[in-house]
Amino acid sequence: MLLTRDEMGFDFKGAKFDREKDRDLLAWIASQFLYGEVTGIQVGHWILHAPDVESAKFLARQCIEELQHVDVFMEFFKWLGARPVKVHPVVRFLSSESDDWEEHCALEMAQGEGFVLMIFYAIINCIDDDKLAKRLDAAARQEEGHVEFGEQQTMKALAKNPKLRKRLLGLHLLSLWVVKRFEKWIGKRVDQDHPVMRQIPEYLGTIIKTTDVRLQRMGMTSKPLAEYGKLETFALITGAVTRKVARKLMFWRWFRKKRLTHTYMHDEYLAEVMKLAEVKNAAGIPVIKAA
Ligand SMILES: [Fe+2]
Ligand SMILES: [Fe+2]
Question: Which ligand is nearest to the Cα of residue 62, counting in written order?
Fold first, then answer.
């Protein structure tokens, strides 16, 4: 990953949730995770749009891992003795599906799963149960792999097509704007007497700052997001949203999309065996030269 676990961590100064007193609150938090993990399973859909065989293999593994994370939250609800509740609209918005592979890797994987990973770290620190914390830690390590894949794919896409930067940056800014609104909303409602919850506004501020660093390290922005003026931010967001709507209307793009079945013969993955076929037999079929 482009950021270490320490850089993504937040010091809650030993504050812990209380399983009995915080049952409703913990059920609400776990319900947001549960929704995110279920949207994670749907990553299987992106295999159809994977640019190469290695990426398709990664997505297949990720799909299994997200299913395992659903199991972790099933355990969480059993430990808590509570039922899941409906997801918050902000979480639903932040988990909404992307329109193309580049958007999926940048928005859902590098940034979105980066948010999720930071919340995983926070829950691990603030939960008062070692067994559950270990299960969550194993899931967090798998999430680190998902974030790293998103970062690497995004950097590859930006190197190949620098014009993508403007559109993707506008969408990142839109997500962060929503998180900032959420930070203000929650700041007015947190229980100031709760040892963990009173630190949430500061914690959300850290998530925003950390995301800013990730975007800089991916090369998505050449300056910190705090240096973007209101007008510049507004122009980038409206530009990205307009392009997103326009792209949805371009139905012919769907017919131009290449699947693995079109590209696998030229894929790096097959390069080794493709090199072996150096001679042709009497029927003109390439065969492997005898050693
Ligand atoms: Fe997950
Ligand atoms: Fe994930």
Answer: 2
